Amino acid sequence: MDIYDYLKMDHQKVSHLFKQFKNSDSAKRKKEIIAMLLEELLIHLKAEQDIFYPVLEEHASSRQEAFHGREEHNEIENQINRLLNDKKTDKNWEEKVFKLKDLVDHHVKEEEGDIFNEAKKVISDDEACVLKEKVHYRKLKYKLDFEKSTVET
Ligand SMILES: [Fe+2]
Ligand SMILES: [Fe+2]
């Protein structure tokens, strides 16, 4: 598996969680789904920024796509922070989740389209498999850090 299929798999996981959120009737279940979704999303963004985007930034032809990707990550992270800082009783909470979904859908479309297209021009097939391994291990590291910080607080 290469970096592209690996990242697509993550995107599908997140999209599935948004769907579960929408279909759930229980407020408690919705909160659980969002906790999972935000964790998945944050770890995915961080690993892409650490491993994938820097490779694109090394090449003039793909640099702009990576910068644009980072800008969209910032917008997504800001929306995640709004959700995390909100009181869960806030009536606009669900609306904020759907706003996050719109931002994520838009970004995924661009990433799997323009960003992957430019990446494939500058990353060899072998490198694309190595990058998949690196992203995978970086995500595991962030997952452990995330769980440690949740246990400690
Ligand atoms: Fe992504
Ligand atoms: Fe991304």
First CA to last CA: what distance? 37 Å
- So what's the oligomer here? single chain
Order of helices and strands, N to C?
Answer: HHHHH
Task: Report helical residue fraction.
Answer: over 70%
Strand content: under 5%
Which regions are unreliable across 5 or more consecutive residues at pLDDT < 50?
A: none
Structural class of the secondary structure composition?
Answer: mainly alpha
The radius of gyration computed from the alpha-carbon positions, rounded to a whole number of angstroms, is 16 Å
Largest sheet: number of strands, sense, barrel closure: none
Calculate the mean pLDDT score and round it: 94
Total helical segments: 5
Bound molecules: fe (ii) ion
Shape descriptor: globular
Instruction: Give a count of the beta strands, DSSP E runs of length 2 or more.
Output: 0
Detailed description of the structure:
This protein is mostly helical. Helix content is 89%, strand content 0%. The protein starts with a helix and ends with a helix. The model has no long low-confidence stretch (mean pLDDT 94). The protein binds fe (ii) ion (FE2) (2 copies). One fe (ii) ion is lined by residues 45, 48, 69, 73, 107, 111.
Describe this protein with a few key phrases.
153 residues, mainly alpha, 5 helices, 89% helix, binds fe (ii) ion
Q: Could you write a compact summary of the structure shown?
A:
By secondary structure, the protein is an all-alpha fold. The chain is built from 5 helices and no strands.
Write the layout of secondary structure elements.
Elements: H1 3-23, H2 27-57, H3 60-85, H4 93-122, H5 125-152
Helix pairs in contact: 1-2, 1-4, 1-5, 2-3, 2-5, 3-4
The structure holds fe (ii) ion (FE2) (2 copies).
One fe (ii) ion is lined by residues 45, 48, 69, 73, 107, 111.
